[in-house]
User: Which sequence fits this backbone?
């Protein structure tokens, strides 16, 4: 197979920058007993340059049939997690086209040396899909790069006594013999790694919205008391974040609690997934509820263009935890959290560049905490009025789009009218830990 493209150096062997998806329609059928997935993916796309081939990412599953605009391509080959379509004739830049892939097999997580495993995974009695950063190809053919965002339709047929959760709004449930089909529409553009399916024996319910954004829970029947402990203030949280960051960017928000324990919660667009072990109601769990909810603004609505800018997701979500701690009346103020974590980072190695941590360190806890500290230093430098205007403008200007660190630096300078080059160099591009400014 000839040299194949890599869209982002943090994820070698993923993504094709020569074309972009404009819509995914995934029609899936899953047998839980045999762990067999069968699917038809219809991908509307556009050429970003003149192309003679299209490369998709699809791992472990077997391709049965491929068409481009309803006809077979000149040839296709599928190996090493890449599906390569050779076109019968070149497509000019700007040309729209449609790919259809029929496939089946037994899905399992994709493993990368720097990032471990991610993707479709069996639970004790169900399925979880953890896509970040490289798991999407474990269950559907895609252009697996973070800046390729598109709307999705996801239909999943499973046994009727299981609940299926996916991104967006549930638009239809259809009983078919012993199975049931769940159809979800995610109208807002979504990166591939944020697409997800969760299957389990869940009680599905909607919290009282009082005319606000619907909040849906999918929880094991015997875990409802724990859900209230950890998620009981989720409505307050969502209202506070909407006031602070701008209107909630999606049609609804869903929190899934699996029967199994999970090491960490999982972020997906319009929903988050937690383990049964996250139901203690203690701050260490409540902060995770806040963190994953904040990702709906920072990570999902506004998504990094390059994986090196992961602090734009994790630093912002971590800072949202600190903001909620103060706004929600918990034991520590935002400034208190910042100074505690600054002191802790001061005792750790200084080998991380926040603006380009490298694939090995992109999910290091120091990225989260130093990213949040960068925002706190910025807030103390430009003042609350400019800082919170900046956050709301960041979301409103880039909602549905992809961004870089340089975009944020430029907007911060624009909003504040202050020369921030020194601050950003020290926090983002130097390894030494700067001092925090004095509290306002």
Assistant:
């Amino acid at each position: 197979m000839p040299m194949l493209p890599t869209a982002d150096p943090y994820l070698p062997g993923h993504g094709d920058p020569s074309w972009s998806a404009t819509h995914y329609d995934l029609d899936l059928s899953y047998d839980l007993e045999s762990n067999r997935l069968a699917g038809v993916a219809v991908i509307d796309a556009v050429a970003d340059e003149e192309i003679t081939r299209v490369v998709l990412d699809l791992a472990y599953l077997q391709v049965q049939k491929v068409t481009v605009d309803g006809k077979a391509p000149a040839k296709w080959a599928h190996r090493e997690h890449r599906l390569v379509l050779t076109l019968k004739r070149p497509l000019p830049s700007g040309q729209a086209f449609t790919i259809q892939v029929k496939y089946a097999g037994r899905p399992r997580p994709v493993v990368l040396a720097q990032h471990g495993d991610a993707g479709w995974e069996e639970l004790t009695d169900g399925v979880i899909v953890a896509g970040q950063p490289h798991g999407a190809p474990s269950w559907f053919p895609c252009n697996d790069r973070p800046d390729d965002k598109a709307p999705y339709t996801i239909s999943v047929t499973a046994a009727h006594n299981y609940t299926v959760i996916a991104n967006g709004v549930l638009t239809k449930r259809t009983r078919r013999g012993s199975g049931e089909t769940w159809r979800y529409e995610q109208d807002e553009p979504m990166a591939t790694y944020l697409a997800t399916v969760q299957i389990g024996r869940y009680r599905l319910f909607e919290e009282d919205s009082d005319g606000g954004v619907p909040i849906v829970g999918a929880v094991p029947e015997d875990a409802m008391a724990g859900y209230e402990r950890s998620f009981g203030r989720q409505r307050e949280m969502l209202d506070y974040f909407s006031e602070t960051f701008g209107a909630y960017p999606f049609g609804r928000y869903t929190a899934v609690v699996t029967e199994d324990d999970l090491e960490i919660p999982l972020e997906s667009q319009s929903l988050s997934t937690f383990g049964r072990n996250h139901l203690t109601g203690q701050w260490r769990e409540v902060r995770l509820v806040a963190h994953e909810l904040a990702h709906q603004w920072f990570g999902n609505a506004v998504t990094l263009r390059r994986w090196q800018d992961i602090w734009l997701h994790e630093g912002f979500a971590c800072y949202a935890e600190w903001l909620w701690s103060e706004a929600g009346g918990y034991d520590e103020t935002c400034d208190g959290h910042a100074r505690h974590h600054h002191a802790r980072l001061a005792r750790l190695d200084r080998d991380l560049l926040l603006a380009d941590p490298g694939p090995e360190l992109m999910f290091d806890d120091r990225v989260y905490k130093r990213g949040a500290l960068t925002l706190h230093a910025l807030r103390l430098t430009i003042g609350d009025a400019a800082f919170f205007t900046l956050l709301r403008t960041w979301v409103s200007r880039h909602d549905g789009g992809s961004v870089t660190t340089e975009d944020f630096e430029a907007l911060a300078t624009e909003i504040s009218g202050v020369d921030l080059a020194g601050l950003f160099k020290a926090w983002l591009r130097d390894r030494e830990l700067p001092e925090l400014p004095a509290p306002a």
Q: What stands out?
A: The chain has three domains: 1-110+127-195, 202-296, 303-429. Residues 166 and 350 are 40 Å apart (CA to CA). The domain at 202-296 is CATH 1.10.390.10 (Neutral Protease; domain 2). The two ends are 60 Å apart (CA to CA).
